[in-house]
Design a protein that fits this description.
CATH class of the largest domain: Alpha Beta
Strand content: 15-25%
CATH superfamily of the largest domain: Response regulator
Structural class: alpha/beta
Number of helices: 12
Number of domains: 2
Strand order of the largest sheet: 2-1-3-4-5-11
Oligomer: single chain
Length: 353
Amino acid sequence: MRVAVAVAAFALVASACGETSSDAAKDDNGDKGKGASGKYDGKGIGLAYDIGGQGDQSFNDAAYTGYERARKDFKIGGVDMEPGDGESSADKTQRIEQLARQGYDPVIGVGFIYAPAIQEVAKKYPDTTFGIVDDNTVKAENVADLVFHEEQGSYLAGVAAAKTTKVKHVGFIGGVDIPIIHKFEAGFVQGVKSVDPKIKIEKRYLTEKPEEGGFASPDKGQDAASGQLEAGADVLYHAAGLSGQGVIQEAGSQQKWAIGVDSDQYRQKALAKYKKYILGSAFKDVGGAVYDLTKSVVDGKPMTGTQRYDLKSGRVGFSDSNPAYKDMKDVVAAVEQAKKDIISGKVKVKTRP
């Protein structure tokens, strides 16, 4: 009965600031978790998703893998929460504060959109560790900024695209016209040009603002992909979250190559029908960052400050799950050489187009 009451109470509050996952009912029982070190006394991980939510086959799902692995390895609870449609900044703040007040530790915001919320709430809960993915503007003793060198993985995607295109014409589709997506474009373009400066590159951003659906509208991605393929491109790279599903579906339906992002999209069940046309993915191990932060809290030594992940750390890279890609010996060799050049410092990848 106590469990049922606790679940009902949490659900009522959560409904105002986003939906909880089905796991919320199983984990929100008021108990304190204990990790292998015996030092942890939090309730578990509190994870707040970015626009698109769980099931985007990309950014948010990457975070979920770390969330699930940490819960299993450290035998702790957790709750993951979805953003609401058209929600305000106040809704995000309410979501983050709800997780902290309930006793979750760490509390992690997936995406730069949570920066103002974490900045505000972290001051109220100094004993809770907060994490924010893709932002390094929140400065507090109990906050870890988890940032990635997306431009490095995108450079490898550019090299792969340039070595694969049959018509010297490729495309880039960004979800929203904002600085972090500019990093993807900058790396991709530089990688393409490093192989052949004469290759033509189509560029398209789906929306100007996140709330306009640039990261959450597969139909917008599909339309953009259709336009770039019609213009003559035969390899498309997207950095568009859930919208990227539309890019991959359109490319696959026209038997053209697509390059995924954030997660290894070749392995995504929702994209299985088109996976033979997913050349690879410029991944960033968001799940690993979520896992690292949780482990640090469980071990009693919480990470704080800016944590950077790059090619050298192995948390950024280019996936090679597609057997067809592995058979392209010249493409694989070019990507591997580019990776070595970036790690050694021979190649400096731009962060702005």
